[in-house]
Amino acid sequence: MRIPQWVVFVWVIVLAVGAVGGAALAYRIARDRAAELDDVLDLPQLPQLTGLNPFAEDVTPPTPAPLDAEEAPAVVLPEPQETAPGPAEVAAAPEVEPPGGDLAPQAAADPAAQTTGADVDALAQLEPWDDPRRVTVLLMGIDQRAGETGPFPTDTMILLSIDPAGKTAAVLTIPRDLWVEFPGLPQPGKINTAMIRGDQIDYPGGGGPALAMRTVERNLGVKVQYYVVINFEVFTEVIDAIGTVEVCPPEPIDDDQYPDGSYGTISIHFDAGCQELDSERLLQYARTRHGNSDIDRSRRQQEVIMAVRDRVLSAGGVIALLPRVPALWESVRENVRTNLSLQDIVRLALAAEGISSENIRQGQITFEEVYLQQSPEGEDILVPISTDIRLLIQDLFRPAGASSQRPTPAPEAGGS
User: Fold this and answer.
1) Which end of the chain is more exposed for a tag (fewer CB within 10 A), N or C?
2) Strand runs (DSSP E) across 298-341, as ranges?
3) What is the distance between the alpha carbons of residues 136 and 289, in angstroms, rounded to a whole number?
4) What beta strand segments (E) does 101-252 contain?
5) What tens digit of pLDDT does each residue of 293-311 get?
């Protein structure tokens, strides 16, 4: 029997209308369901990967200008567990999304203010940092002079990293002239300007210190959970509290252009050989750079860190200093920016105290890992060599008991 054409036509129209209507109904149901889930579920942020400087070349020196290149892969550190914030950070530091897609932990509004009235008995009950995951702190010293209100460049940047499970630690000094890319910002620059840039734009997660942490992560591939920013006044007060510190310069140091803190200069001199220095002289020893390189200065800064550690241990350790800590903290906290509480600082110090000197690995970014070039403005800069920096960091963060695979660096031939 022949089916009339008008019947076929009607069936086609009915099927088409049914398909369109069904699709519209399914879309509406899915949309409403998604809205309901969005209201009741707090979905976690996806983890963000960090990488090495995208414009640092491995073979030939790059031009110090912004490039449209993909980021190099993050350094793969030999860690058995994923790095994560310590126990005190989770509740007080929710993550936010800054420009450029990097996650920045939101610090407590003023962790220092939370410690007012902390007494010695409470601090004495604290246990060493017990989270087994690696924890890394970016220590920054700012060049703040009398009468200045900021923002300030960083005079010193040092990564302090502790592996509580492996009982090892690493200290990495970052030269302030290192040429880097800043997450979310269009122009590269010296790493010591990260604090200024971050404070100027109120970078999400903590301003200047947050941008400095994310810049280190982007260019060095190391996850950083915490920061501590101090000025020179804090340094001298801490040294005054623990007493003179012994350092041993291998050769004389002369600097006739040392900044005096009031936009002038003075001449300073250090004899070769071991000597006890008070706070003012120790600051001069750590800061001076004229007459030699910024790389040499980074070695002296690490020498000062280890000498201060030895001084604290010789005085009875962190526990012996606890009676002075609350008063000292009240004295310096206005000059400290940090997302750590005083209690967590003490707990980290107790953990670091339990690591033997031979398990504290020290490293500097030297002329073996950078190219000496000039910026577009004519300033001397250090352009990183990504592969060599990756090897340096892998060596510093190697598992406990593993031997170093890096060759002994050759002596530097020049300075910046």
Assistant:
1) N
2) 336-338
3) 27
4) 104-105, 135-142, 154-163, 168-174, 179-180, 189-190, 226-230, 245-247
5) 677 888 899 999 999 999 9
Taking Cα atoms as reference points, which of 182, 402, 416 lies closest to residue 292? Answer: 416
Task: Report pLDDT digits (tens) over 65-89.
Answer: 443 333 444 444 444 344 444 433 3
Cα–Cα distances (Å) from 234 to 39, 228, 239, 352, in that order, read 47, 11, 9, 20
Single-letter code of the amino acid located at 274: C
Instruction: Tell me how far CA of residue 381 lies from CA of 196, 350, 375, 377, 400, in angstroms.
Output: 18, 37, 6, 10, 35
Query: CB–CB of 225/136 below 8 Å?
Result: yes
Rounded CA separation 20/297 (Å) = 73
Which neighbouring-strand residues pair with 227?
138
Q: What per-residue confidence (pLDDT) applies to 67?
A: 37
Q: Which residues pair with 136 in a beta bridge?
A: 161
322 within 8 A of 120, measured Cβ to Cβ = yes
By C-alpha distance, which of 227, 248, 247 is closest to 239? Answer: 247
C-beta atoms surrounding 385 within 10 Å = 25
pLDDT of residue 115: 46
- Structure tokens of 293? 């390189």
Among candidate residues 387, 392, 383, 386, the one with its CA nearest the CA of residue 364: 392
Mean pLDDT of the region 250-271? 88
pTM above 0.90, yes or no: no
Q: Is the peptide bond before 175 cis (omega within 30 degrees of 0)?
A: no
End-to-end CA distance of the chain: 97
